[in-house]
Design a protein that fits this description.
Blueprint (H helix, E strand, L loop, with lengths): L7 H17 L15 H4 L13 H18 L4 H10 L16 H15 L24 H4 L26 H7 L4 H4 L8
Helix pairs in contact: 3-5
């Protein structure tokens, strides 16, 4: 479950086996219908909340794949990150992988779960040492390339978030941001991301 994102059909089959174990019980007649005294969601509720603590297989499967995806994103010096990067995102990051390459079952699972990871993760900007182009550092980052204003050929684009700050300060260089991005008013609202 921590390596492959199971299909809903397969999860349903596994859940049916578990449900039958809990709900069927001892029947006086083989063809009689089982009596289900509690809803399945109640049975999956943790014990301290009055349920039986039976795990929701789909939630567990997604959580384990999400943990693996976050480890890859958060630990760029990890061996697994290096192997996956060399094959699936050599010129980018896990946040912008090439989805057209042939995939292993594990990587296909990571790709499927990536939108959930993107929607529920963020970087807290302190030093500004993360990439402007390959790390989700602000709310509108997913559209950063769409908003980019192409500069003259001799222009040197900022590489890290700190390059968008005023010199020796942690305040946004609004003039630079305005010249780089369309609809840059969205970028100005990223001040609340700064910490320390």
């Amino acid at each position: 479950m921590s390596n492959i994102l199971f299909s809903k059909k397969f999860i349903a089959k596994l859940t049916t086996i578990i449900r039958n174990f809990w709900w069927t019980g001892v029947k006086e007649e083989a063809h009689s219908k089982a009596l289900c005294l509690r809803a399945w969601k109640d049975i999956c509720t943790p014990k301290y909340d009055g349920g039986l603590g039976i795990r929701n297989l789909q939630a567990m499967n997604q959580a384990l794949i999400l943990m693996a995806a976050w480890r890859i994103a958060d630990q760029p010096k990890n061996f697994l990150h290096a192997v996956l990067k060399s094959k699936y995102f050599p010129d980018s990051s896990i946040w912008r992988p090439n989805t057209n390459t042939p995939k292993s079952a594990f990587w296909a699972s990571i790709i499927k779960i990536l939108p959930i990871l993107k929607a529920h993760s963020f970087y807290q900007i302190t030093q500004g040492r993360i990439s402007v182009w390959s790390t989700p550092w602000c709310k509108d980052w997913a559209h950063i390339y769409d908003a980019l204003i192409i500069q003259p050929s001799e222009f040197s684009y900022p590489a890290q978030v700190k390059d968008l700050w005023l010199t020796n300060q942690q305040n946004w260089n609004n003039q630079l941001i305005d010249s780089l991005f369309q609809a840059c008013h969205n970028q100005k609202h990223t001040n609340h991301l700064l910490a320390g």
